[in-house]
Amino acid sequence: MKLEDIKKSFAKDLSAANDAKALEEIRVKYLGRKDGGLTKILRSLKDLSAAQKKKVGPAANALRDNIEKELKRKLGQLLNINNQLQEGFDVTLPGKKIGVGHLHILTQMENEIRDIFSRLNFSAVEGPEVETEHYNFDALNIPPDHPARDMWDTFWVQSTRRTKTEDVEGKLLRTHTSPVQIRFMESHQPPFQIIVPGRVFRYEATDASHEINFHQVEGLMVGPNVTLANFKYIIETFFKQLFGPEIGIRFRPSYFPFVEPGLEVDIKLSSDQTKLMASRKSEWLEVMGAGMVHPNVFKSVGYDPKKVQGFAFGLGVERLAMIKYKIDDIRLFHSGDLRFINQF
Ligand code: YSA
């Protein structure tokens, strides 16, 4: 028999074998001392010429190794099936469902906010989380030692916070998404309307509605005739789309150095958000700071404040998710508690 024929015949025998006894018979047939075709070939090698030996020898050895390997593999396979059958393993049962995970509630919330603003014709842009003092404060009309810096308790990345004596620019974890307003305006000309979703950081005490690491979505609309009326329309439309037409919205005067006038927006909590309401002693939750962009901010990016005007806002994503999904403690979002996460 030729090597090729032995190979074919072995493959056929192997696939027909379904117990250890049959496998042993195959082993004897192909590798046994007696008359196995392969044994004969291996034995006759000594009578071949040197050239033939060189050709047939390695091929015959390789086939022998392969036969041994295949016999072992098939034996393992048969034993495995046998064990499973003995243990009462039912191969016809449906498999275990593998959990496929899902988007975190905050990602879902951010996506929903992006969708609504996209329908209102706002494009989304992003900026760095590690910022310079210039973009986070100075260019937003908050010079060093301005008391308004205390509104944002800051994580400084390097101990290079600028002081009157040491004029070195500091690096920090951005305390709000507002620095991206400056970055965007430096490289674009009005008119435009953008949102900036992103992570922000504050070095402050946590409670049911305050985290040290949370998310904001900044908004900025600038053009020759943008007014506070445009802001009110956009924001009311946004909240009604997010929470439904009956939602209570309150605009309050406020102060931010980078807007004039400045305001804040509150959303009315439902009566079943009792824990949050109890800890806050108010049925209104502040969700957004906003205002008309200050002329000094326009000047810092080279715009002429006599020619353009605009509104800006920064909303808290966690706070909106809390209202929408009746979550009474902001610290749950990053708690890693699957009982919480899997509800959404
Ligand atoms: C104001 C005017 C503008 O022209 C543009 C943006 C702004 C907002 C400003 N940059 C800012 O950060 N204001 S803020 O400190 O009041 O925060 C905005 C929103 O973030 C708040 O209304 C609240 O919803 C959320 N927030 C603030 N501190 C938080 C927080 N959410 C969770 N944990 C905290 N510690």
What does this protein look like?
With 344 residues, the chain is of the alpha+beta class. It has 2 domains: 3-86, no CATH class; 105-341, BirA Bifunctional Protein, domain 2. It contains 12 helices and 9 strands. Helix 1 (3-16) runs parallel beside helix 4 and helix 2 (20-31) packs antiparallel against helix 4. It is elongated, with a radius of gyration of 37 Å. The model has no long low-confidence stretch (mean pLDDT 89). It binds 5'-O-[N-(L-tyrosyl)sulfamoyl]adenosine (YSA). The site of 5'-O-[N-(L-tyrosyl)sulfamoyl]adenosine has 26 residues, from strand 5, strand 8, strand 9 and helix 11.
CATH superfamily of the largest domain: Bira Bifunctional Protein, Domain 2
- Which whole number gives the mean pLDDT? 89
Low-confidence runs = none
Helix-strand category: alpha+beta
Each distinct ligand: 5'-O-[N-(L-tyrosyl)sulfamoyl]adenosine
Topology as a string of helices (H) and strands (E): HHHHHEEHEHEEHEEHEHEHH
Tally of extended strands? 9
Predict the CATH topology of the largest domain: BirA Bifunctional Protein, domain 2
Gross morphology is elongated
> Ends: how far apart?
69 Å
Q: Count of helical segments?
A: 12
Strand order of the largest sheet: 1-4-5-9-8-7-6
Largest sheet: 7 strands, mixed
Beta-strand portion reads: 15-25%
